[in-house]
Automatic annotation (TrEMBL):
InterPro entries: Cadherin-like_dom, Cadherin-like_sf, Cadherin_CS, Protocadherin/Cadherin-CA. The keyword Cytoplasm does not apply. Keywords: Calcium, Glycoprotein, Membrane, Repeat, Transmembrane, Transmembrane helix. SMART domains: CA. It is found in: Membrane. Gene3D superfamilies: Cadherins. This is Cadherin domain-containing protein. It holds the Pfam family Cadherin. One of its GO terms (molecular function) is calcium ion binding. It is a single-pass membrane protein. The keyword NAD does not apply. Residues 19-116, 117-226, 257-344 form the Cadherin domain.
Amino acid sequence: VTDVNDNAPEISVRSALSEISEDAAPGTVVALVHVQARDSGGNGEVRCSLGEGVPFRLERALDDYYSVVTARELDREQASEYNVTVRAADGGSPALRSSAVLALRVLDVNDNAPVFAEARYSARLPENNAEGALVLTVRASDADWGQNARVRYRLREGRLRGAPLSSYVSVQAETGALYALRSFDYEEVRELELWVRAEDGGAPPLSSNVSVRLLIADENDNAPQVLYPPAPGSGLGSGSGSDLGSGSVWAGVELAPRSAEPGALVAKVVAVDADAGQNAWLSYELAKATEPGLFRVGLHSGEVRTARSPLARAAARHSLVVVVKDRGRPALSATATLTVVLAESVAELLSELGS
């Protein structure tokens, strides 16, 4: 009886893995298959191969046995499962073929650290904020699976103004939300530089850090402070006429010669503002004067100058009230009171003050 190629090759899987770790070494045996053809001669010669595009290869074990082994390291993050097709073809003409499919799931290994959504974070927080105010939320993702991909956040410890950072801000472990634990004052703390760590649940865990910059935004919560003339009772030069004679300074008293030309400098109101930006931009205005039109105040300089001449007919003593305003919304202000004495000499000034 002459053989006819009428039997397709038979493939039987003798042993096979259903799961394999992604860190399995190249050459790890995945399955052992037995291949045979019932025909004879060339019709019974069998050639085996695997489907294309899979990280596996066939190795001849015995005459009719083949091992399916890993050809390289696996990466679950690229492919979490494989359907490996084992194909067999005999030597007949035409050839007969058969195939078997091996289903294989790749198990995760904690080989990916968390990755933050941004390279660095920054946020602005108005001063005088409420305690517990939400500042921002940092987010990190992990390409692994299950517990290996569970991310928790914590603040890397540091110090600010002698106190631990954890007394200023906190990070919610599950969500990455950053909260202010105290009310900030721009005049004390203008910015915070801190680091947040994201750590996965692997064993051992992997982590990464991100920089967070918190800028405290100024609010107009400071009124201008008049440095000169000093306020009454400040101890900077108040006294009696006899004190003046001994050489001490009577704060806020200025001498203006009656012969002064228009625009002559009489005094300068000096003020500062602890705020920043336009909240600290100051303007000066003459709010009250014993004789209106005799003196003027520079809007931005605070310089008190004569507005007209001659001054011969004017009274000897003049009281000026200067209002200093910032440009905040709403604006805050302070006042300064000056006494200007029209006199040609210090002796005449002392005589007038002594009266």
